[in-house]
Amino acid sequence: MQSWRFRGVAGPAAPILAAAGIGLATITALLGDRHKQRDAGLNSLIFDAAYTAPDPLAYNADLFGRSVDYDYKGGIRSGAPVVVVNMNVNAIDQKGVLENADVLASGIQFAIQKGHPVSNTMRESVSGGNAY
Predict the structure, then answer these.
(1) Domain-located, residue 132
(2) Listed residue (65, 71, 104) closest to 85, CA to CA
């Protein structure tokens, strides 16, 4: 009779234990590591929830709202006289407020010192009524 040996186990149980070990290894390989899967899922969730600023848009128009573009030499191409108006639109969100807190506070302080009406509104808010 042939003697089976599986990591210190001898006898008739060795082939059964070897088959069970191979079966468990196969199942683990097919299912994957659940900790790595959870980590990958959380990383994907964090990446998808991250704030991305919108892409800037450039639109050129004349005073009447007609679209204007440029020719290959850089000259303005339109059927009517064109007045070019550049308008930059900036939006501020919570992150922008936090990043520029010093600049905003300095601007508010300057406005209060120069007698801007915002100082009256602040007094009313603090006193709970009329500032005068």
Answers:
(1) no
(2) 65
